[in-house]
What does this fold into?
Amino acid sequence: MSSYFTEDASAEVVNARIGPRADRRLAEITTSLVEHLHAFVKDVQLTQAEWEVAIDFLTRAGQICSAERQEFILLSDVLGVSMLVDAISHRRPPSATPSTVFGPFHVEGAPVRPLGADICLDGKGEPCLFEGTVRDLDGRPVEGACIDVWSDNADGFYDVQQPDVQPRWNNRGRFLTGADGRYRFRGIKPTPYPIPDDGPVGRMLGHLGRHPYRPAHMHFLVTAPGYEKLVTHTFVGEDAYLGSDAVFGVKESLIAPFERLEDADTLWRSPYDFVLAPADTRDGALPRPTTP
Ligand code: BEZ
Ligand code: FE
It folds into this structure.
């Protein structure tokens, strides 16, 4: 094969340039990427003008990125790639609690609060008691599991989106399970909200006739020594957006009960048990691609 570029042999010509000392995994990924990318360009017969729109889109996505904003992850989220990578990376036993998308609003180091404490600091929303047990695959309670939780407030914003409006650590906290594996905290029944849609990804959704909303959910990051880290949410059943989550994060078994209580202080109760899989000994089995 000639090394000159032709339309027919485009991907082969590009891939033939990879050198013999290239990192094997990087070469594998790049070869496949080039094959699929060239096939895609040929499939849609991409025009020069459309290519320029794509370059402009990527440029604007890069320009809006900051320490607080990651437009490329958002792009991955709305294209379903984040959920696909998560599914491939966390093939857990069916009885373990499934994972879902992490999202951009987790903050490291939330206050560790006593079991039963209230994470809602702005007094807004419908008070809700979240409680349950963390277990292993054999049903044994997991002691000392850390339940890191975060949710939006009643107006649909995380505290980090409104640093001048909401108290720091509003609707966030960490809780440690006791010997019975149980956790318990108060928060609010979460509300649906739009993903950040004031940038190129939001505009793209608009052009595609897609809405930017996520169904109401509570985020959970559950960790315990000897167990695989679990990044997940529980979803409020009957939410209008359950079937059209902008980032495809909903899984049937993550839809939790939200029971109405008669209690004057706490309007709702959401019981949910987590089942952790043992730590994945395959971690690190795949070589990490290095940059050239
Ligand atoms: C979230 O649930 O916090 C989220 C997930 C993906 C994109 C934006 C927000
Ligand atoms: Fe969220």
